[in-house]
Structures are given as structure tokens and as C-alpha cells.
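Our consortium's second objective concerns turning raw sequence data into structural hypotheses that experimental partners can test. To show how far this objective has progressed, the report includes one record in full. It was chosen at random from the queue rather than selected for favorable results. The single chain below, 234 residues long, was entered without modification.
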Amino acid sequence: MEERRVTPEPDRYAICAREDESIKEYYKGVFEEVYIFFHPFIKPVTMDADLFYGDEIVDKHQMIHHCEKVSWKQFMDLSGLNSYDEIDIGLRTRILGLKKELQDQKLAKVIDTTCEQHHLIPPDEGFLPDLIINDLLAAIKKESYDWIWVGNEFCTERKLEYIDDLISQDILSRHNLFTHDQSILITTHWDSHFSMICSDSKEKLENIIQTCSLEGFYCDEKTEIYWSVRNGSK
């Protein structure tokens, strides 16, 4: 009879919080504060928007040099949507990321129509956004870190990377980023259009938020991954 192999629980300082559970409760005893930041919409300026829908992948450097970010607040002004909740639900509906009873096809249609009218690209889900990842890495470096661990979804594999290399190259995929002293984690839920920065120091977290001009909100005790459909948004 074969021995049943059971993997150990993943390190909470290195992975995304679980669904259907308070984010702050999940990280309790590990991180003091968690900030959800939105992946911006993308506005191609000096490149053809159709390239985003072709076979070739638009890389990080193309996006940084030829596109501008459009915040969720700016998108509300363009679309007439009323809240971050509506944008999140609409984006999730577009990718079939919600149960049928929670979907809102009208919100999804507004997002598609607004993007078409204003030549915008909706944010990707499950990946740290290319338009601001270099800013995030530079902000972490500013906090006196030269190296950062890069882990896969459950951090069963991890690699120590030099931050300057990550900034100059385009080598990140779906991932978790965490510092060697376990004081900062940047993580993304696989089916969400936002990421989270977790830290044991609110001062460090505030510095990163301000340096990168991030748009989002701090988690409270009730905030979950699906905050928009659970009345947890700010």
C-alpha cells in the first residue's frame, strides 16, 4: 500500500490569502496591515491597441513605454459606473469569475463599451500589472532591499532575485514577491483584477503606496477576496 503524501501548509508570509475568509484574519500574527491595490486599465498611446488581441504578447517594456495607466476612478468618470464594487463585479463577470447568481452582465457590458469607445484595455487578472510592477519593485528597493524572493502560487517553488534584474528584464509571471525578512509580501489572487501588499510595518506600507501612487483601500477585519459582492469595499 502506497504511503499517502500530504504537503505541509504553505507559509502565510509567501502566498495569497484564501477565498471566503477574512484577509486580515488569514494573515493575523504575520502581517499588521494589508492594502488592496487595483490593476489599472491600459491606454495604448504610441502603439496599436489591436496588438493586445493578437497572437504576440505585449511585453512589460512595450507597455511601459507606449501606454498610460487609467485608474478605476478615471474609469468611473468615463463609464458612469458608481463604485469600485461595480467595476470589480463587472470585470469578474467578463471573465466568468463569479457564480451565475452574482454576475452582472449590464456592468460587464458597460466596461466593454467604455473600453471600446475610449480605446482602453481592461486590466488582467491574476498577474501583477506590468504598467506599475517596476514602480513597486523600485519602492521596495527604496526600503533598503536589494533582493526579493519570487514564489509560485503556493510557494512550493521560490527563487531569490536581484531587484534591479527584475526591473530591467521581463521575467515575472503569476507569482508572489516577498522580502527575506518576511516583512513585505506582494501577492495576486488568480481570478482577481487587483493585488495586495501586506506588511508588518504600516510605515513601510504607506511609503510604498505613496511612492507608487497606488489606488485602492486598506482591508478591515471583514474584507475578503470577493469584497465587492460581500459589502466589504471602501
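The partners drew two points from this record. Strands lie at 33-38, 41-44, 67-70, 147-151, 158-162, 176-178, 184-188, 194-199, 216-218. Residues 105-118 form the longest helix (14 residues). Both points have been shared with the crystallography group to help prioritize constructs.
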